[in-house]
Design brief:
About 40% of the residues lie in helices and about 20% in strands. The protein has 13 helices and 18 strands. The strands form five sheets. The chain has an eight-stranded mixed β-sheet with strand order 1-11-12-13-16-10-9-4. Strands 5-7-6 form a three-stranded antiparallel β-sheet. Strands 8-14-15 form a three-stranded mixed β-sheet. The longest helix has about 40 residues, at about 70-105.
């Protein structure tokens, strides 16, 4: 959630910043809500003062010669009228505050000043390209055709079990998928200093509000039942980041806190009808190794570069060509203030496709979650900054390996770095 103080101080400036994310701030509606809020506050303060004065009325009336019983009755009537008015104002204030909270909750994060201008992915800026796409001397297959051997990648079975956008992995491909997870977790814990976590795959609405998925993106989520109030997680970012909710990090030396977590992810893919229907690129259920950092505000810019570098390290160890882009304002996510996307080269599509998105959320999520740290210089709690990114999306990494490491006979060479988790196998899908 954005800082309400900034909005009160200069709504026009906030509106200009939000316009860079293609969001139109209704300043008139905001000011009308603020005027109603202020009106209730002023009226409430006046009634409180009147009630304080009314409590002194009995003595004043008696001194004026009014009999005690009559003085009590008159003062009691006056107090009752004030209390009734106070109750009305309080009820009205609750309604106004709820409307104001809903208004603020729908506003996206403000972009960093160095985020490129633009309205769509066409205006994203490439900042790095690593590796050279392989030149094949045989017709290139995509991952669907490669995985069809022995039904190692079985979309028909997934459809029979559940429906479209599900897959069953068998044998060597299933093992390669598991090897990728273990490799990523070991790299991030042993070399990058992340704490490995295992978290619930279901969360409540408060957790999803804290990281910004609710209320705006409810249609993208899978809700369980009607009354339970549980949702399947769209990413490990939600439960891992919410570990800091309603808490204060008392020891500043404990920051930054780096956490890594492997989970399945569940997304309805609302609005993506007709996109990437072939293969594993866009599934309702997929797996990710997620990186999350909780940092002091003065650390967050550097932490984004570091976290993105940790995701890049996976691609480099796997020797997969990729490019790094910084998203323009119009293509950024709701909660992000700055985002880098990593796009891996897929020979089967002859294009780069997103495999990781790494974002600095600033204090946007922390304000929604009330996640804080105690500044030793002031002794006061302050909002943390939160960051997250895929390190990496496992299914898309599997796709990239199959397509980049394929051979003319339909087999796939196992990247050297993964062989310890593959019983030393140098290739899979051999005829």
């Amino acid at each position: 959630m954005i800082d309400a103080k900034a909005l009160r101080q200069d709504a026009e400036d906030v509106a200009r910043a939000l316009a860079r994310k293609r969001f139109t701030l209704d300043i008139a509606q905001y000011r009308a809500l603020e005027e109603r809020r202020k009106g209730c506050d002023v009226e409430s303060q006046g009634l409180q003062a009147a009630r304080n004065q009314a409590s002194k009325r009995i003595g004043e009336l008696v001194r004026e010669g009014v009999p005690v019983d009559e003085a009590k009755a008159r003062a009691g009537q006056e107090m009752a009228e004030i209390n009734s008015a106070l109750e009305r104002v309080r009820e009205e204030a609750e309604v106004i505050h709820a409307e104001l909270d809903a208004f603020l909750a729908a506003i996206p994060n403000l972009p960093d000043a160095d985020v490129p201008e633009g309205t769509s992915e066409e205006h994203n800026v490439e900042v790095l390209r690593w590796g050279t796409p392989r030149v094949f001397d045989f017709p290139v297959r995509d991952h669907v055709d490669l995985g069809a051997r022995g039904a190692a990648m079985d979309f028909d079975a997934g459809a029979r079990l559940t429906g479209s956008r599900f897959v069953v992995l068998r044998g060597e491909i299933a093992r390669l998928h598991r090897a990728l997870i273990q490799f990523m977790l070991d790299l991030h814990t042993a070399e990058h200093g992340y704490e490995e976590l295992n978290v619930p795959y279901m969360v409540n609405a408060d957790a999803l509000f804290g990281t910004g998925q609710l209320p705006k993106f409810a249609e993208d989520l899978f809700r369980l039942g009607i009354d339970e109030g549980y949702y399947l997680i769209p990413t490990a970012e939600v439960p891992v980041t919410n570990l800091a909710r309603d808490a204060i990090v008392e020891d500043a030396a404990a920051l930054p806190r780096r956490m890594v977590c492997h989970t399945p992810c569940f997304r309805s893919e609302a609005g993506s009808y007709g996109k990437d229907q072939r293969g594993m690129i866009r599934q309702h259920q997929f797996e990710k190794v997620e990186l999350v950092q909780l940092v002091r505000p003065d650390q967050s810019a550097a932490a984004l570069e570091e976290l993105t570098g940790h995701a890049e390290a996976v691609l480099r160890r796997l020797e997969l060509p990729y490019r790094k882009i910084v998203l323009c304002g119009g293509d950024m996510g709701f909660a992000a203030r700055k985002t880098y996307d990593l796009e891996v080269w897929l020979p089967g599509q002859h294009k780069y496709r997103e495999i990781s998105s790494c974002s600095n959320m600033g204090d946007f999520q922390a304000r929604r979650m009330l996640a804080r740290w105690r500044n030793p210089e002031t002794g006061k709690p302050e909002l943390l900054h939160t960051l997250n990114g895929s390190g990496l999306a496992v299914g898309r990494t599997l796709v990239a390996i199959l397509e980049n490491y394929q051979n003319a006979d339909g087999s796939v060479t196992v990247p050297a770095v993964l062989r310890p988790w593959m019983n030393g196998a140098t290739s899979i899908l051999n005829a």
